[in-house]
# Entry
Amino acid sequence: MSEIANLATGELVTYEPASPVELEYTIRAIGERLEHAVGVIDALQRGRYDAEAEYSRALETAKLSSSRATYSDRRAEAILACLPKFRELNEAKAKLHHAENLQDALGKRLSGLQTIAKTLATAYNATGR
# Structure
């Protein structure tokens, strides 16, 4: 049986099952991957919220510790000082969105394969095999 996932990256490779057994194997593999992804999504969400809290804390601290006279100057200085934290926040958000999009795509792929499996089962039953 051909590999359906790249073990180095975890991404599914283009793979079209050729028999009902391969189809069931693919369905099971995608289902297991979706189950394991829940923990990964949770960790990415925690990372995103932690990055957001760290950025907010750093931004407010920078505003309060600024020696600029006006609030807008303090805010501008704080934003510039916190750009690395802002980049970390954006990266955490991007990772989470990528994982959620991949999860959604896998769910749709699983649904499609399950439909094909039901169709095959009906076809085999109709022919008396």
